[in-house]
Design brief:
By secondary structure, the protein is of the alpha+beta class. It is 37% helix and 23% strand. 40% of the residues are buried.
Amino acid sequence: MDAVNQVIWLLDVYTERSDTVFVLYDDERHLIERRIGRLDFYGYLETPDPHRVAEELRESSEADDAWVEKWRKPPFYTETVDVVVFRTKSLRVLKKILETSSSKGLRPLNTFPHPLTEALYRSGIKPLTPVTQWISNRPQTSSWGPEHRDPDISYVLIDLVDGYYTAYTREGVERFWELRDLVNYLISNRFTLGFTDPYIYTQLISVEPGIKEIVYRWIVAGAHHPSEFFEWSRLGYIPLSLMKNISIGRVLTTIEALIARDRRLIVDKTYGRLEPWRSLRELVLFDRGGVVYQPRPGLYWGVCQIDFRSLYPSIIVRYNISGETVDRAYCSNRFRPEWSSHTICLDEEGVVPASLKKLIELKDLYDELAKRTGDELYEYRKSAVKWILVASFGYLGYRNALFGSVMAHEMVTSTSREILRRARISVEKRGYRVIHAIVDSVFIDNVSNQTMCEELKKIIEEATGFRAKTEAYFKWLYIPRRLTSDEAASNKYYGLLGSGEVKIKGVLAVRRDTPAIVKKAQIEALNKLAKAETPQELAEMLSEAHKVIDTYINMLRKGSVEPSELVITRYPRTREEYKKPPIYALTTQPPYRLIYTVTGLEPVNEKTLLRIDLDKYIKLLEKARRELPSHKDLGIDIKR
């Protein structure tokens, strides 16, 4: 049967006592069916006498089979060890054997990813795909294609936006000021799946403990779209039962670990790849991050923004950068780039590049499908893959990364600096100027039109050997000053695109913790600037933009602003990020809905709404004003 026409989906898989439960979903009748089935679960043991242990397991009534295989040991997988591998039909029995073996001094191996994920992977059963038939007590799923649809299933996605609990469903968007009203909405609608972050979920449970039972399953790993979670589930063979609080990094590491299984590479969290001793000079030269220019603040005309496509993942794939390939002692084919102090072993493809290569191709495919069809489904799927690719670089240098190392991390950043250097030189040879560069983006001014921007993109691709794209052509671009000095804020900019739209990055209007009134004021002011295409027009519109800010300040002073527009939404920081935790972080539960009072930020309630400090909000509006161009930027005296 063709997968596109299937209506029975493998929605989920979980274990219950000694059973494996497959959850099927009929998206014509919108019904869920639970069916008991069977999977093979695998365990791994290291022991001085592997053949004797394997024989004992075979003779026991618990393991279905056991044998000995040669596996390679981390950190660089240059040595092998005999490993006892056993198979059983029950996850509970698997855990019992591992616990008993551990108590006798045997060492369990390959404890990541979850045994259920490996069982699905070995069986070729991909979650969130159509079921074609049921054979030998297990489902057979269709060959999944990127163009296939997701199940037609009811869901609710809950986020906190501008102080309101916001529920996104297939039918639209609902906003709630009171948490109890949101709870009542959820109870009355009975969705199949629920998505939110752990903080909002905790608040929901505190109001109504039974809320956990009103949907088939809650995924409390953030306010991502269901199609993003579905994509992660398929890519990592991770059923929804294991995604309750999953992170992007765990999805990535699961994909990597499954590749390691195929190669018989032991996955062991206790092994690390220690950073060697280096001189101060070496640290200064090589222990740096990616490229971030310190641009001059101000207004630029005819600016081309060229972005490299998935730059860091592409570097990892191109140069075979992985924890076990960088600075590997025993290697017959070694590459030493002139821009780095590290070496790369090319004897075999690394686990990390092998994982990312397919993801880069998949992201490009979803990008193409999104452009060709205009279907937002492919945008969500592209976003899901992009999140993994973005996380791949960070996890490469994470101290507990299974397949990373500090040395591999440095190899990527040093290579990215070399690529950006080549890009800058190639542009400057043509008489252009790079006014800003940040990680994988290059900004070039005095570019006459979009066509010339495309030519510069080709020049950069030829000079670097890496794919790029024309991300934007700005008729004008403004890089604001920092709010506390005259230096430029390297991560903030906005400008007028050739299409007439405004692209905004980093300023108050797009920050999550900016109150709605300030967002509205700044966006309205920037829309005034968007009407200008010449310096003189911009000077005139700048006066109009200042008037917008003045209008909102007057609205505050007159008391004609709804209190809800003053709410500041904040999520908790880690303990290390706080110099001193604020009072609200000690007395209330996140996410925090706050309002400025005369004593500072306080949780929103009936009492604090009577003590609003309007001067604080006027200061925020003045900050928004300072992110507008100044008269110095235009060389014209601006009068308000």
